[in-house]
Automatic annotation (TrEMBL):
Organism of origin: Paenibacillus xylanilyticus
SUPFAM superfamilies: Radical SAM enzymes
GO molecular function terms attached to this record: 4 iron, 4 sulfur cluster binding; coproporphyrinogen oxidase activity; metal ion binding
Function: Probably acts as a heme chaperone, transferring heme to an unknown acceptor. Binds one molecule of heme per monomer, possibly covalently. Binds 1 [4Fe-4S] cluster. The cluster is coordinated with 3 cysteines and an exchangeable S-adenosyl-L-methionine.
Residue ranges constituting the Radical SAM core domain according to the UniProt record: 8-245
Taxonomic superkingdom: Bacteria
Family from the record: Belongs to the anaerobic coproporphyrinogen-III oxidase family. HemW subfamily.
GO BP annotation list: porphyrin-containing compound biosynthetic process
Main location: cytoplasm
Subcellular location: Cytoplasm
Name of this protein: Heme chaperone HemW
Keywords from the named record: 4Fe-4S, Chaperone, Cytoplasm, Heme, Iron, Iron-sulfur, Metal-binding, S-adenosyl-L-methionine
Amino acid sequence: MTLAAHSRKTGAPQAVYLHIPFCTNKCFYCDFNSYVLKDQPVMQYLEALEREMEHTVKANPPGEIKTIFVGGGTPTALKPDEMAVFLRSVKTYFPNWADDIEFSMEANPGTTDAEKLAVMKEGGVNRVSFGVQAFQNDLLTGIGRIHNTDDVYRSLENARKAGLNNLSIDLMFGLPNQTVEMLNESIDKALELDLPHYSIYSLKVEENTLFHTLYQKNQLPLPHEDDELQMYLLLMKRMKEAGYGQYEISNFAKPGFESRHNITYWRNEDYYGLGAGAHGYVGRERHMNIKGINPYVEASRAGLPRLDHFEISRAEAMEDYLMVGLRMLEGASASRFSEQFGESIEDVFAKPLGKMLNAGLLERTSDGFRLSEQGILFGNDVFAEFIGSISLNS
C-alpha cells in the first residue's frame, strides 16, 4: 500500500512541515512568510507552535512519521536554547519516528555555529539544506543575502564536524547581472563540495518584493531569456556529468539522497503543516494558517490558527496529482493514480495527455507519463493543460 493510500484510510499523515518565520534580514526576491528577527516574540511564537501541534494531533493523531521538514524564514536564526525547546516539542507531539526518518532543516550560511548544530543533531535533525544561492559575493550582495562564500565553507565544515553529513545547498540562476559563466563557476564550486544533494532554482520575480518594485520601474538587470535557457541547459548537463540524478525539475541527488519530504508533495500525499502561514493537506482538505506572528500567537490560544481551510474536490485532487507528479522526472504514476482515485489516468485525462504526447512534451513510461527532454524546458505550459481539464463531482 502506498503512503497516500495509507494516509487516506487512517487519516494519519507521515510527513510534517513546520514553519519558523524569522530571518536575520529579508532578501530582495523573497515573498515567503518571514519577518526580520529583531524584537520578535520568539518564545511566544514557539509556545504558540507547540499549542498548534497539540490541537493538530488531537484532531488528527499521527502515525509513524517518515519525514519532517523545518522551513522558513531561517530556522537556524533561533538561538541554541530556543532551538532545543522547539525540537523537544516536535518530538513530544510527533513521537513515533520511522527508523530511517528524514528530518530536514533549512539553514543560512553564517547562522549555524558548532553549539547550534550540536543541538540540532541532538534533537533529531539529520539533514540540513543551506541557502547558498551563488558563489560570487557581488551577486549575493545584489540579491540581499548577508552571507559570503567564506560563510558557506565554514558552515558546511561545522555541520560535518557535528556529524551532519546529509547536506544540500540551494543555488539560483537568472539573477540580476548573472552571466552563464558565473553560473558555471558556481556549479564548479558547488560540485567541489561533493554533497549528496543540490537544488537549483530560477529566480522568479514575485509581487511584494523589492525586486518586483525594481522590475516595475525597469531597474532590474535580469539576464536575457536566451541566456537563462542556456543556464538551465548547462546546469542539467553539468549535474548529469557529475553523476547526479535529476529527479525533479530543480533537484539533483546522488542515488538514495533525494528529498523524501518534497517527494511527499510531488506525489500529492498528505502532510501536516504547522506554523504561521503554513499550508497542510490532510484527508483531501487543505488549510492555510494565519500569517502574522502576533495574530498567529493569539489565534493558537483559541484553537487551530486557520486563515482558511477547504475541501479539495475529486477533480481538483486529480489535477493536482498530475501537475505536481509531472515535476518529478520519473513522472506521474498511473498505478498510484488508480489506487488513490479508483480510475484510469488515461480515461480521466485523455484529451490533455493526447495533446501533450503529440506535441512531444510528454512521453509514456512503464507506469504512466513523464516530461520529455523538451517538456522539461516548458513544464509550466504542460502543467497548465491539466488545470480545469475535468469536471467531476467531488
